[in-house]
User: Fold this.
Amino acid sequence: KMGPEYQTMKDACGFDPMLKFSSVTMGGVPDAENKMVVVVVGFTKSEAMACAEGAKKAGKEGWAIADEAGATKVTMDGKDGFAIWADERTMLISEDLAWLKERATGKDGLDTSSVFTDLSKSIDTSATVWGVGMPNEKDRKEMGEKVAGAQSGDGSVKISDGLAIVGGIRFDNADNAKN
Assistant:
């Protein structure tokens, strides 16, 4: 059951946003917090703008919406984010507008990363939510100290006729995977 905040959001949008999602995909650069892109499939631009405008009118402090340099700039709680529409129902979101525009044009996409491509082979990309990740060197070292030899991870949640949750960790060698 969703809490009262979710009902407030539904009221602000004029529809149930959760029913609009087809998929959400995230990717980014491990060492750069603002170098992340979220791809949301399901909303139209007018629906997303209606939600943002509704939240602003509902008294959410620090909210602002504006068109800026070919993107939609949304300020929430004093923090800026940008959205670009790849098509009628596909929104790309990031904090870094220049980096987002490069991703939107296909520059250095996730499909050019051999590590990502290899990791994504082990995951059900048709799942409702899925993810793969390989931390930067420093974080991988810390992760490896907690789970010997851990190098990367993947997981998915599929909601259809039931619930399926799958997760995995990749190790540096077979012995560490056994322990």
The mean pLDDT is 78.
